[in-house]
Design brief:
It contains eleven helices and 17 strands. It is an alpha/beta fold. It has a six-stranded parallel beta sheet with strand order 5-4-6-7-10-16, sandwiched between helices. Strands 12-11-13-14-15-17 form a six-stranded mixed beta sheet, with helices on both faces. Strands 1-3-2 form a three-stranded antiparallel beta sheet. The chain is globular. The N and C termini lie far apart (51 Å).
Length: 368
């Protein structure tokens, strides 16, 4: 009998993982989930049964598939390009945030007559240059789209290599400059600082004056959300005693549950009535633990998730900031194709705005 890992993820994290896999692949297998989540077959089957009861999936022999009206049926496949010209794509993950970005790239690439050559790296990869070198050796590759890891000793080396490799490139959800002149690199990004501002304003409109921000420690997006949050607190006139910021370890780490509990303790001790939490799975964990401790969401505590990958499917449906993921991917391809056609054109940096989707997890501050 398979033993469950003592550090197995919480139920909200498991649900988010399953929903992201279904959104990406249209199918999940029990054996796959056991390996990826470190849980027992009984736990996986119980999760799938509960999610089927909620209409989120349909169980089949050995796993589950997306419902016919779900995300898996939303993306029609265009006709194959007439040429072998390709755009190589390297993203740090094929889970959660990035599948929707890649779908946007794929749709736009096909429309423009290009094939997409996709590679997934990882946030642990210290130097992406060997992978990129192999990609550009393919004569069919006319350009690169990538989201390099910005937190490694080789981050600037990768940027410098891109500038010298002779193949046009565009960064997605990353900003960088080429030294020594600090020339900006062509990029498409979401205005994540604006996303934090939208969330803070929404909470302020509901009367919340004691608010908190909880971020994923390892995500490059967190820095931009944090900057926007700081600006929002200043705009709203909140003092340091009225807001706080916490960082969480990766959701699969042994410390994650304790960190969420500690942050929730801090929330209660400070009289905080609303939180912005990055990302969806982390926000779900907060709701799950809050409810287990008798804290009502949103009556006692309003929660806004950041990413809106699967936030709408949770109970209660989470108010969430949604980056325009597919639009980011499409814009990156458009930018690269224009660069391929006009090598001497000015450097373009495209910034897209996120949206705030208000749902059931936020409410006016409770009046005692």
């Amino acid at each position: 009998m398979t033993e469950q890992s003592p550090h197995a993820p919480l139920a909200p994290t498991r649900r988010a993982h399953v929903l992201a896999a279904l959104s990406r692949d249209g199918i999940v297998r029990v054996s796959q989930l056991i390996d990826e989540l470190g849980v027992t077959p009984v736990t996986v089957r119980r999760d799938l049964a509960q999610m089927e009861a909620e209409g989120l999936l349909v169980r089949v022999h050995g796993g589950a598939v997306a419902p016919q009206n779900g995300h898996a049926a939303e993306h029609a496949v265009d006709a194959e390009p007439a040429t072998d010209d390709s755009i190589a794509v390297l993203v740090p993950s094929l889970n959660y945030y990035w599948p929707h970005v890649v779908r946007g790239m794929e749709h736009e690439a096909r429309r423009r007559g290009y094939r997409l050559l996709l590679r997934g790296a990882s946030y642990e990869l210290q130097d992406e240059r060997p992978v990129l070198e192999r990609l550009v050796q393919d004569p069919a590759v006319k350009g690169l789209i990538l989201a390099p890891n910005t937190d490694t000793p080789h981050a600037q080396d990768v940027v410098q290599w891109l500038a010298d490799c002779g193949v046009p490139s565009v960064l997605t959800e990353r900003d960088a400059v080429v030294l020594p002149g600090r020339t900006p690199v062509e990029s498409v990004t979401t205005d994540h600082a604006l996303g934090a501002l939208l969330a803070a304003r929404h909470l302020a409109e509901l009367g919340h004056r004691r608010v908190g921000l909880v971020l994923s420690r390892d995500s490059p997006t967190s820095r931009k959300i944090g900057a926007g949050w700081a600006a929002a607190c200043e705009e709203l006139g909140l003092t340091p005693t009225q807001h706080f910021e916490d960082f969480l370890p990766h959701r699969t780490s042994a410390e994650f549950s304790d960190a969420v509990n500690a942050s929730l303790d801090r929330t209660l001790a400070g009289g905080t009535t609303a939180l912005l939490v990055h990302a969806d799975a982390e926000a779900m964990a907060f709701v799950d633990l809050a409810l287990a401790r008798g804290i009502s969401v949103p009556r006692d505590l309003s929660i806004v998730a950041y990413d809106d990958e699967v936030a709408e499917l949770f109970t209660p449906a989470l108010t969430a900031v949604g980056p325009p993921r597919a639009a980011v991917g499409a814009a990156a391809v458009d930018l690269l194709v224009r660069r391929i056609a006009e090598p001497d054109r000015a450097v373009h940096r495209v910034t897209l705005s996120p949206t705030l989707n208000v749902r059931a997890s936020t409410a006016p501050v409770r009046e005692d």
